[in-house]
Amino acid sequence: RKSQFEEQIYRCEDERYELDVILESNLSSIRSLEAVSCRMARMSNDELHRFRLDSSLGGNSEVINLRSVQRIYGERSNEIIDGMKRNPSVAVPVVLKRLKAKDIEWREEQREFNKVWRE
Which of 10, 19, 92, 114 is the most buried (most CB within 10 A)? Predict the structure, then answer.
């Protein structure tokens, strides 16, 4: 049986791990969408109009990008994902901006949590 102190340490480690996973998957999605954004910037208007994203949303993993979008958009994520697939030239910059804002927010929270976790 674990002591109360050991339980707190394990809970702290779990929280830190969970936050690290969230930050890394968010960063992976940012990189994927930045690559899509760069690719779209080089396209002609006609190519851009015909351009569509597949289920991976421009990344190597369907799951990581979908979960990142679901995490920040919640119940509306299906609409956002559908918009990214059908009209990436409009949706990708908006989602990318939101992912970057969340990255800043979550990293700041991580710094604050680190202060608490050290204690």
Answer: 92
* Residue 98 CB neighbours (<10 A): 14
Render each residue's pLDDT in the chain as its tens digit; 119 residues: 678 888 888 888 888 899 999 999 999 999 999 999 999 999 999 999 999 999 888 888 889 999 999 999 999 999 999 999 999 999 999 999 999 999 999 999 888 888 776 76
**CB 70, CB 57: distance < 8 Å:** no
| Residue 33: exposure state from Cβ atoms within 10 A (0-12, 13-18, ≥19) | buried
